[in-house]
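G., before I forget:
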Amino acid sequence: MRIGEIATRTGVEVETVRYYEKAGLLPPPARQTNGYRAYGMAHLERLAFIRHCRALDIPLANIRELTRFMEKPPADCSGINALVDEQLRVVRARLKSLKALEKQLSLLRQRCTEGGRGKCGILEELVAAAHGEACACHG
Amino acid sequence: MRIGEIATRTGVEVETVRYYEKAGLLPPPARQTNGYRAYGMAHLERLAFIRHCRALDIPLANIRELTRFMEKPPADCSGINALVDEQLRVVRARLKSLKALEKQLSLLRQRCTEGGRGKCGILEELVAAAHGEACACHG
DNA sequence: CAAAACCCTGGAGCCGCTCCAGGGTCAAGC
DNA sequence: GCTTGACCCTGGAGCGGCTCCAGGGTTTTG
């Protein structure tokens, strides 16, 4: 299997596949006589694994750790749990701040219709923050 | 006001202030005879404005546009509306995918306790994805 | 047999900072 | 007067996770 095929089969860009190899996530494959990369099923699986983890927004460094776990399973899976828990914590924190963000932005958006002729409620709101006045965002 | 003061007053790092100048967001201030940057109130306001926009996760390019609007207010504020709407759209999209993510991760986390001695449900789940089997994440 | 599609390497660019090396300047304390 | 430490300067590199490009070679298609 050449790089183009493994890429389309996993839904990853060709450049990204090479990047994963360079980053030490995907083991370097054998080469054909012309220098082309020759992948096997193990690579396909590994790449699908990486993609799956990335879909969960797990950082590359953590995926590297997970693959190490896979190759050499630890006695207990407390390391793996910690990793997933950590990821869950990160995601939940991001979720929280994004929710706040959405609220602020929709408040800001409402400002547009207020303020009458020639005045832009949005810009005024943003400038108010610069003056340290109370604003919809920072109380 | 020197760079350290304006930085602490707005809660921005000194390096970041210089970066905003280089990025064309903060106009270059006057210089003291020793070469130190000398900021005035206008800079303080502008920096607070930038920081506020960043707190709303508005990208620097859009902040640049907003400051242009401020310096030269347009007849209508449809450009500004579009900008805020766009930001809102981005945030909502991110929110949606983060919510899905959180669900997948907590499902994954539950797998740990299942599967008995020596088996790691989490790793198995992730590997199942590599095999293209149905998994908690991609159906 | 030419054009298109694929492959290779090495390096730069994206965003929004952050940090570092290698210097200059200045106020306070001994 | 001299050291210490805090502050300031510039220019450039590094982060993550790709993405794109130049400048080549090879294979497939019409």
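Residues 134-139 of chain B have pLDDT under 50 and may be disordered. Chain B touches chain A through 48 residues (CB under 8 Å).

More on Monday.
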